[in-house]
Amino acid sequence: MKKRVVLLPLAFLLCSVLLxxxxxxxxxxxxxxxxxxxxxxxEQDTQPEQPKVPPRVVIIDAGHxxxxxxxxxVTGLVEKDLNLDLAKRLCALLEAEGVRVIxxxxxxxxxxxxxxxxxxxxxxxxxAARQAIGDANPGAIFVSLHANTxxxxxxxxxxxxxxxxxxxSAALAESVRAKVVGTxxxxxHRQSKPGGSNIFLLHKLQIPAVLIECGFLSNPAExxxxxxPAYRDRLxxxxxxxxxxxxxxxxx
Length: 252
Ligand SMILES: [Zn+2]
Prior knowledge:
The protein has 252 residues and is α/β, with parallel strands linked by helices. The chain contains seven helices and six strands, in the order H-E-H-E-H-E-E-H-E-H-E-H-H.
């Protein structure tokens, strides 16, 4: 009995010494420093990679400007002013949808270099400058805003022309046309058409491009509508919806 009482503390002492020796050995094997050993990487909760959506960039081109007023309505409404006002309304709506907008002009000007020899070439230089903005943004779409006029008063309704250089231009034109007809002009049966070489920008641009004749200034009722800020708002909303619908269909 007495012998067992002596042996138990002795065994405990031997175990403690052994554990100490093992700890020191591990410490020395680790290089004898207090720098922690490299740990295996902790597995992160990784999200599945989202497909990258290209940024939506719209170039809004308010037709005419400065010395070039464009068409003049039966009420005296000048096309360049209508185009710019609509462009600004559309710009605000698209930006609210998260679209990046580039305006070819935000003031009543033609886009030609005042330092260049522009005599007799203002319009040519202006259109070339607008084309250059399109060419410099290959990921963008180009929306040119204009208004129509015709010797006979009866003609009315929005008309969309598209560039024959890009297949997507026709889809953009159809999307805009459909939204305007669906929300604003149910009796408008005009179809979108490819622009010929007489429409300089559509002929030259390689990106998706449309030219929208927003209505006939030669039609008294439509000219009065186009002069009305509330109607311009509704038209800008319809154009915005058409452009956004184009992007949604394009992404599918
Ligand atoms: Zn025009």
